[in-house]
Amino acid sequence: MTVASLAEIKAKFSAYLLEAETSGPVVITRNGRAVAVIVAPADDADLEGILLSRSPRFRSLLSKSRRSIAGGRGETQQGFWRDSARGASLSGSRRSARRGSTA
């Protein structure tokens, strides 16, 4: 992991991007305090994970879900997939009905 000041990053941004891709995260400091990190995602799934992990809305939803599960109001994995399959088939029939299709 590399640590660099904001002034250094501004002067050599492309070099620090390459370093993040090849060596790992680059911590950016301002007045000696860490203020940002340059991270190169491995793939699209990694990028999504990075973005979701910092999303206040997603974190709130996750926290609410954890409280629900802890309170005994969770769903089993089998029940989740069963209900998901039902929802998908229901959505498909709704689309067909809107188009006037009988298929």
Largest sheet: 3 strands, mixed
Radius of gyration: 23 Å
Spans of at least 5 consecutive residues whose pLDDT stays below 50 are: none
Order of the strands making up the biggest sheet: 1-2-3
Mean pLDDT: 87
User: Helix content range of the residues, please?
Assistant: 55-70%
Which word captures the global form? Answer: elongated
Element layout with pairings:
Layout: E1 2-5, H1 6-11, H2 13-22, E2 26-30, E3 33-38, H3 44-53, H4 56-70, H5 77-99
Parallel strand pairs: 1-2
Antiparallel strand pairs: 2-3
Q: Could you describe the 3D structure shown?
A:
By secondary structure, the chain is an alpha+beta fold. Among the domains are: 1-40, YefM-like fold (3-Layer(aba) Sandwich), CATH 3.40.1620; 42-73. The protein is built from 5 helices and 3 strands; from the N terminus they run βααββααα. Strands 1-2-3 form a 3-stranded mixed beta sheet. A hairpin with a 2-residue loop joins strand 2 and strand 3. The chain is elongated.
Which labels suit this protein?
103 residues, 3-stranded mixed beta sheet, YefM-like fold, single chain, 15% strand, 62% helix, alpha+beta
Concise overview:
The protein is of the alpha+beta class and 103 residues long.
